[in-house]
Specification:
30% helix, 273 residues, alpha/beta, two-stranded parallel ribbon, globular
C-alpha cells in the first residue's frame, strides 16, 4: 500500500491484520502516528528492494570518482568546447581516502562493504555500541560522531529518518570536521537543515555537498541550495524501486504470512522503522 494513502487512514482500519507498504522510507507515515495513543493494531512491513544497497553503493562510488577525477569540471568545459587538461592534475585515488559512513544497517553495510573493497578506509558511526572490530565492511566502528567528523575525507549519511536521527548534523555540528570533507546525503533529508549545509559550506567546515535527499521534496525552485557553489543535486535517485521488485517482494511476504512465518522488514512502531 502507498504510504500517502495509508497515512490518511492509519487509525481507520480496525480489521486490518497486516499491511505491506510499497515504500522503504516511513517518515511520512510515522508523521501521522499519534504518540498519545497505542500504536495501530496491525503488523506493518516495509518494502526494501534487494538491490537498494547495490544501487546506493554504486551512487556513492560514482560520485566520489567524479569529484576526485574532476569529471564534473571536464563536462562543464565541454559546453564551451574547451580542451582543459592539466599536465599534473592533483587528485586522490580511492585508497587515499577515509570515508565516514553514518549508519550500519543493510544499506549502510552495503555502502561500507563496497567502499572497503575499493580500497578506502571506512569508519562507521552507529547510535548503539557494538563489540565487533574491523570486518569486511569497515575498518572501525564508533558511537562517537566527532570521531568520524575529525577523520573523514567524505562523510556519507545512510541513516533512516527517526526521532533520534532528525537534526543530528544541524547547527554547528559540522564545525568538528577537521579535513573539510565532502558531505554526501543519500539517507534522509531531515538529518540536517538546508541552512546548516549552506552555513557549513560558507564557513569552510565542509568543501562540497552531494545531495540526493532533502528536507522538502521535490526541492522547490527557489531553494538556495540550487545556486549555492559546490553543491551537487540529484532528485532522490540514489536507489529507485522497480515495479517487478515490489511485486516479487509482496508475493514473498504474502506466502510467509499464509504459512505463519516471520515477515520480512517488519516495522517497529516505537522506533519508526
Amino acid at each position: 500500500m502507498d504510504c500517502t494513502y495509508l497515512s490518511e487512514m492509519l487509525y481507520s482500519l480496525p480489521n486490518a491484520k497486516w499491511i505491506q507498504t510499497t515504500w522503504a522510507g516511513l517518515e511520512l507515515l510515522m508523521g501521522s502516528v499519534d504518540r498519545t495513543k497505542p500504536p495501530p493494531n496491525f503488523t506493518l512491513t516495509r518494502y526494501v528492494d534487494p538491490y537498494f544497497g547495490e544501487l546506493m553503493s554504486n551512487y556513492v562510488i560514482a560520485q566520489i570518482i567524479n569529484i576526485e577525477r574532476g569529471f564534473y569540471v571536464y563536462h562543464d568545459a565541454q559546453k564551451t568546447a574547451t580542451w582543459s587538461r592539466p599536465f599534473f592534475p592533483d587528485f586522490r585515488v580511492l585508497s587515499d581516502l577515509t570515508i565516514g559512513v553514518l549508519g550500519a544497517g543493510k544499506l549502510g553495510a552495503s555502502v561500507s562493504s563496497l567502499l572497503k573493497k575499493a580500497g578506502c578506509s571506512v569508519l562507521v558511526f552507529v547510535r548503539s555500541s557494538r563489540s565487533d572490530g574491523p570486518t569486511n565492511n569497515y575498518d572501525e566502528v564508533t558511537t562517537e560522531l566527532n570521531d568520524v567528523l575529525e577523520k573523514c575525507d567524505y562523510l556519507v549519511n545512510v541513516l533512516p529518518s527517526t526521532p533520534e536521527t532528525e537534526g543530528l548534523l544541524d547547527g554547528d555540528v559540522l564545525k568538528n570536521c577537521q579535513k573539510k570533507p565532502i558531505f554526501m546525503n543519500i539517507g534522509r533529508g531531515d538529518i540536517i537543515k538546508d541552512s546548516s549545509i549552506i552555513k557549513a559550506l560558507k564557513a569552510g567546515w565542509i568543501s562540497k555537498a552531494i545531495l540526493d535527499v532533502f528536507e522538502v521534496e521535490p526541492l522547490p525552485p527557489d531553494n538556495p541550495l540550487w545556486n549555492t557553489p559546490e553543491v551537487y543535486i540529484t532528485p532522490h535517485i540514489g536507489a529507485i524501486p522497480r515495479i517487478e521488485g515490489i511485486a516479487k517482494f509482496i508475493a514473498q511476504n504474502y506466502m510467509r504470512y499464509v504459512k505463519k512465518e516471520p515477515l520480512l522488514n517488519e516495522v517497529d512502531w516505537k522506533k519508526g522503522y
